[in-house]
Design goal:
mainly alpha, 6 helices, 142 residues
Length: 142
Amino acid sequence: METTDARKLKPEVQQELRKQAIRLCKKGMTQVQIAEIVGVYPGTVSKWWLAYKKDGIKAIKAKKRGRPIGACRTLSPKQEKDIQKAIVDKDPNQLKLPFALWTRIAVQQLIRDMYGINMPIRTVGEYLKRWGYTPQKPLRRA
């Protein structure tokens, strides 16, 4: 019996496998036979069938996987907006920071001063990238 890990399949394919397994269960086939046909483990067919019997077709629907967007972020959306506004409207000198230009370290210091959050420099870089800021090198002038 050749089985595949159903979790690695696309959600649409998973959904079709589940529907096919449920149709075969309704016809009276054993879960082992269905598992052979569909190409998954018998335990997987059993889980699908139990979920279907309990809550119907909506129970076997493929759900969005992974972390929700915005989960596990250090800053709240309001804090992010406030920091972005401070970066755009003012330079570090105006905010009493010992920097001439906005750098990751300057933004890190700004976050510490505004909200008391000690954020790693790499995380500050990720936030800046998410906000659309790119690393730039000033031109040298004679």
